[in-house]
């Protein structure tokens, strides 16, 4: 007898369904790209998807594209780590005192709307050409997004949850570790994802601006160089590499973190 209920998919099936849907979306986009490129019929304006894939494969086999991606990711890792460390200090101070909370709110209101790329001229003046300037602007792009989300997540914790922890004898860092941090984890992960997106696009933009001078050798410099040489298929291959890295980080690394934490703990659906 039909009772109107839907069968619950198995765990493996439920895990693969979002991946299949995302793969379907990517397939549709690739098809639209190929059709539009064939309709334009001008490789100097918009190469087809197949031409871009051919350039992507050629640059991967020669090792140039992986080397450029590794150079960008190395700088990104330094700036992202610095931004997370500073955000952790500010949020800890904000949670511990009212003055710290007001300080963080004021700083985020001042600096969060400021585009990181706007600080690039100052970074060049202070640190010169090269990786330190890139690390500085990446740190700025990560710091405020992560700190703001983490602080908002901690402030949204119900007071009763705090009292439960205190009634269990938890104080100080133990209360933060066992109660506050897990409860605020969805907001913290959201901040990490936003900070990653800001950092990645800031890095590529900064490399495009002064990659020719710093010889940083990243993906942004690759795109700039190939554009000057009118190798548009390799420009699109560089852009495709930027997109692919973003998809991997978002869909693999952060999704794995969510599955092992907030999904398993029932903190989000």
How much is the average pLDDT?
83
What fraction of the residues are assigned to beta strands by DSSP? under 5%
β-strand number:
0
**Globular, elongated, flat, extended or rod-shaped: what is the shape?**
globular
Number of helices: 10
Biggest sheet features: none
What structural category do the secondary elements indicate?
mainly alpha
Percentage of helical residues?
over 70%
Structure summary:
By secondary structure, this protein is mainly α.
How would you portray this structure in words?
The protein has 269 residues and is an all-alpha fold. The chain has 10 helices and no strands.
Q: What's the SSE blueprint?
A:
Blueprint: H1 11-40, H2 49-61, H3 64-96, H4 98-111, H5 120-127, H6 131-155, H7 159-167, H8 172-214, H9 219-228, H10 232-263
Helix pairs in contact: 2-10, 3-4, 3-6, 3-8, 4-6, 5-6, 6-8, 7-8, 8-9, 8-10, 9-10
